[in-house]
Amino acid sequence: MSSFIISLDFELYWGMRDIVSLNEYKDNLLGVHIAIPKILKLFKEYEIHATWGVVGFLKYNNFDEIEIPSILPSYLNDNLSPYDYIKKMKGTTDNEILKMHFAPNLIDKISSTPYQEIATHTYSHYYIDEPEINPSAFKADIEKAIELFARDGYKIKSLILPRNHTHKKSLQILKHTEIKRYRGNPTHWTYRDGESNKGIFLRVYRLIDTYINLSGYHHSSVTKNNQLIELKSSIFLRPYSNRLKYLEPLKIKRIKDAMSSAVKENKNFHLWWHPHNFGVNLNQNLKNLEKILTHYSYLQKHYGMKSLNMQEL
Ligand SMILES: [Zn+2]
After folding, report:
1. How many whole angstroms from 165 Cα to the centroid of ligand 1?
2. I want to staple 234 with a disulfide (CB 3.0 to 4.6 A). Which of 39, 81, 113, 270 is the partner?
3. Domain ranges in the chain?
4. How far, in Å, from the CA of 13 to the mean position of ligand 1?
5. What does DSSP say about strands 269-273 and 158-159: parallel, antiparallel, or unpaired?
6. Superfamily of domain 3-307
7. How far is the CA of 101 from the centre of ligand 1 (A)?
8. Phi and psi for 241 in degrees, rounded to 5?
9. Å from CA of 51 to ligand 1 middle
10. Is the pTM value of this prediction over 0.85?
11. Exposed (0-12), middle (13-18) or buried (19+): which is 229, by Cβ within 10 Å?
12. Model confidence pLDDT, tens digit, residues 153-187
């Protein structure tokens, strides 16, 4: 049987804080609050089962509520840790700023939509591959996420690692939790290290690969190592590009071809993106998504492809 897996990294500004200023990314972040209900509507219509990896902080209403884990990360690059930023932002009451960091009602909306799995994208958007980290800080981070969500009855079973880092040794701490599955990377050399490798050649290759099949279809395999299940991703659904809008049909064709190929070979196909990628150009992004979901419906009807979230798989 061939499965169609969708996972989303729901992180708001916590996943972008070290990359872009709040003001520069404002439209994308505020747009998430409009985009998610529309994505959910499409998922309902096409009976899509999806996994939402949520950054733990999103569960709070403001900076003052954020609880500090017992051990904090100690990255070589100080800026990667959000805890000084949280201290600085305490007392913020501006509604727009809060909406760019927190979304407890969206989490409820996702979980009350059929077949949607709430997973974790770590508590603090934790960077597992960064040098000089204290492995017990990762453990404290994950445990905090599990505990926070458990208060509202959520049982977290899957993990999506920030920047697609996959430090196999650190992941072993998951064995002591109920999280038994995580999203891994395609095995192709361009993607296997997630965002740890940011070389210019790699970035250009990945950009071209978005439109033209250079690296293959990346069928998602399920591998078991040490009681943990790795579900590899296949393709990142890049946001609609105004600059390269004439290439958009190629991008969607590339994804549809990969789905068809997965079905023919009885393999899985795993698509992922961030809700903030839909924060601007929402209609164009939704149209793209609908084209993909329509193709899924066709493959489901004619070849028995099945939509499953990470937990179900
Ligand atoms: Zn992230």
Report:
1. 10
2. 270
3. 3-307
4. 9
5. unpaired
6. Glycoside hydrolase/deacetylase (3.20.20.370)
7. 13
8. -110, 120
9. 14
10. yes
11. middle
12. 999 999 999 998 887 778 888 888 999 999 998 88
